[in-house]
Amino acid sequence: MRLVLLGLPGAGKGTQAKRIAEKYHLTAISTGEMLREAAKEKDTFGLRVQEYMNKGELVPDEWINSLVKSRLQEKDVENGFVLDGYPRTLQQAKMLEAYLQSQKQNLDAVFFLDVSQDTLRHRLAQRGNLRSKEKQGNSQIEAKREKIRLDDKPEVIENRLHINKELMESLIHFYKERNLLYVINGEGDFDNVFDNINEGLLSVNK
């Protein structure tokens, strides 16, 4: 299967992507993790990536498209994948569609984790607080590693949500037109959300 998980920051995409990948023997591809790894390199590209992330802004389409295209050509993706955090713009969605068609492939389903803005703010704030506490007890090396993560200050959170919300509406319309979209209530317990995704996958596999 070839799947996409859509959702605003804090919707739980990473958690669900890993669980889906484990259950269905797929490769979980997180563009957020890819960008954080790039930022660790501290080269020109990594420093520019970190700059965008620190502001809560999206990395340019051409950069992320190039990273994803290269990742999809690796051998561990042959049996299927679940994309977490990509696409985030209409241009990215069109690139993904064109690339898959060039490989005579298509997406099987797109799951949108629908979560309220208030819940997202709460989750992101909690995540930032948790990382702050972890850094206090970590070794110096681990603390430096944690700093690579996006800064979850309130103003950055608001900017991330604002930018992504506007773009998400276009993506939902794009995949709805292609009869690929499944809307999942992402408010509840993560186990319940996973169960709802599994129900959707049962219909995909029929």
Structure description:
With 206 residues, the protein is of the alpha/beta class. It is 62% helix and 12% strand. It is built from nine helices and five strands, in the order βαβαααβαβαααβα. The chain has helices at 13-24, 31-40, 44-55, 61-72, 90-102, 117-137, 140-147, 154-177, 190-204; strands at 2-6, 27-30, 81-84, 109-114, 181-185. The protein has a five-stranded parallel β-sheet with strand order 2-3-1-4-5, with helices on both faces. Helix 1 packs across helix 9, helix 4 packs parallel to helix 5 (90-102) and helix 6 (117-137) packs across helix 8 (154-177). The radius of gyration is 17 Å and the shape is globular. 28% of the residues are buried. Mean pLDDT is 85; it is low at 141-151.
| Beta-strand fraction estimate | 5-15%
Instruction: Report the biggest beta sheet as strand number plus sense, adding barrel if it closes.
Output: 5 strands, parallel
Structural class: alpha/beta
Total helical elements: 9
* Strand line-up in the sheet with most strands: 2-3-1-4-5
Q: Give, in order, the helices and strands.
A: EHEHHHEHEHHHEH
State Rg. 17 Å
Number of DSSP strand runs:
5
Give the overall pLDDT as a whole number.
85
